[in-house]
Write a structure and sequence with these properties.
The chain is of the alpha+beta class and 263 residues long. It has 8 helices and 15 strands. A hairpin with a 5-residue loop joins strand 1 and strand 2. The chain is globular and about 50 Å long. It catalyses: L-histidinol phosphate + H2O = L-histidinol + phosphate. Its EC number is 3.1.3.15.
Length: 263
């Protein structure tokens, strides 16, 4: 999605800063990984640790130093209003993976312009992998990221973080229709599976119950790699979306998946 008041050069400046942020907090994240941590349940029963809070505080501190006029929305500490630009951060996307020693959690950093996703970063501290995206381009490390050419659900490799996220009957039925129609289905991975989709290693991701900090960074990466990412009605994802996310490698595959969601 192009933004008339911001240019690709602006995205490069902001992505360079996002990479600095990820470099800054990666060792902090890893210092807590696979160590004894007190796990607290939030109001929605999702877990949080001192690692989540420490990393988010460090991210916010650095953003406020560099771009004091920008807004910030974080998973753990809430929002700071700003102007046209707002950073949206998830210090540890995949806290359940993190607290059980599973290494495919990530740090998500997104920048929105007038509430629309502009650029995003997925950093995977344990593996050292990183995806970035801006209008018209996605990168895995320093190389180009491209989705697969898959156009048929029967050929598709399907991923979701957990079948447990589909809590009501209609959501569960939609999940079963798509995942059973796919060539194979796999579970686990949180933000990592969207990176895999951007790099062409899987073809469909379906999830629900996500928050803006879970998905805003993913949008520029999936779209920049040539894929599609919307809500379950096919609408663009915004910070006001209800958290039902469908990502697909190609427009035709996406259209077929949307049709299957609705039976």
């Amino acid at each position: 999605m192009a933004h008339p008041a911001v240019a690709a050069d602006d995205a490069d400046v902001y992505l360079s800063f996002a990479a600095e942020l990820a470099d800054l907090v990666r060792p902090i994240v890893l210092s807590y990984f696979r160590t004894p941590l007190e796990v607290v349940s939030k109001s929605d029963d999702s877990p949080v640790t001192i690692a989540d809070r420490t990393v988010e505080l460090r991210l916010r501190e650095r953003i406020e130093q560099r771009f004091p006029e920008h807004g910030i929305i974080g998973e753990e500490i809430g929002g700071k209003p700003g102007g046209a630009f707002t950073w949206i951060v998830d210090p540890i996307d995949g806290t359940k993976s993190f607290i059980t020693g599973f290494p495919l959690f990530g740090t998500l950093i997104a920048l929105t312009y007038q509430e629309q996703p502009f650029c995003g970063l997925i950093d995977v501290p344990f593996t050292g992998e990183r995806w970035t995206g801006k209008p018209g381009q996605a990168l895995f490390g320093t190389g180009s990221a491209r989705t697969s050419a898959c156009e048929r659900i029967a050929d598709a490799r399907f991923y979701t973080t957990s079948p447990d996220m589909f809590a009501n009957r209609s959501d569960t039925e939609a999940f079963e229709r798509i995942s059973r129609a796919a060539r194979l289905r796999r579970f686990g991975g949180d933000c990592y599976i969207y990176g895999l989709l951007a790099s062409g290693h899987c073809d469909i991701v379906l999830e629900t119950g996500l928050q803006p900090h879970d998905y805003m960074a993913l949008i520029p990466i999936v779209q920049g790699a040539g894929g599609c990412i919307t809500d379950w009605a096919g609408r663009p994802l915004t910070i006001r979306s209800v958290g039902r996310v469908l990502a697909s490698a190609t427009p035709r595959l996406h259209a077929d998946a949307l049709a299957l969601i609705h039976g």
